[in-house]
Amino acid sequence: MWTLPNLLSLFRLLSVPVLLALAAHGSHRPFLVLLVLGLMSDGVDGYLARRWNQHSDLGARLDSWADMATWLALPPCGWWLRPEALAPELPWLCSGLAAYLLSVAVGWFRFRRLIAYHTWGAKALSFLAGASVLIFFAHGPGWVLRLLVPLVMLSALEEIVITCLLPDYRTNVPTAWHAWRLRKRIHNPIQSPPAPQPSIRHADLP
């Protein structure tokens, strides 16, 4: 439980109410500093878990809870801090958010747990989304958020496919192809060839 990767995920999760409070009070600079620290922890915790061999289902779920809480908190924070820039992007953000929540709902319906696949596509999306969010909250253009929506939809679609393919709950599934291979291996196990029968020689005959 108390590994450094898990502590970083826990820090990100606990920073969400603080981010909301700072944005609601218009504290732009402290909000941006805490957001940068949270996004940095998101990039570091997975690397440390792999480097130090500290993978666990608890760590994967904790990371997913922190990710979900952070990304769900950012739209209201954006509305409080930069409503004029966020308003034109709301239809796009709502469609991306709906796709993300649909993938979460399908996983919850299937496994009764929060999915924590951490696919390669989701990791790339997390990096791009973090950069776009920082640009936006640093008084950059709002359209950088719009560019993320197709990527969010593709990532959500892949996670739905993975949920449908997996025979049981798993964490850290890199791609839908890996889920398909796992399903195929479980449903079609490789059977060992039958043991060779001893040959009958003429001398053995009565």
TrEMBL record:
One of its GO terms (cellular component) is membrane. One of its GO terms (biological process) is phospholipid biosynthetic process. The keyword Transcription regulation does not apply. InterPro entries: CDP-alcohol_PTase-I, CDP-OH_P_trans, CDP-OH_PTrfase_TM_dom, CDP_ALCOHOL_P_TRANSF_CS. It is found in: Membrane. One of its GO terms (molecular function) is phosphotransferase activity, for other substituted phosphate groups. The chain crosses the membrane at residues 90-108, 120-138. The keyword Transferase applies. Keywords: Lipid biosynthesis, Lipid metabolism, Membrane, Phospholipid biosynthesis, Phospholipid metabolism, Transferase, Transmembrane, Transmembrane helix. It is a multi-pass membrane protein. Belongs to the CDP-alcohol phosphatidyltransferase class-I family. This is CDP-alcohol phosphatidyltransferase family protein. It comes from Limisphaera ngatamarikiensis.
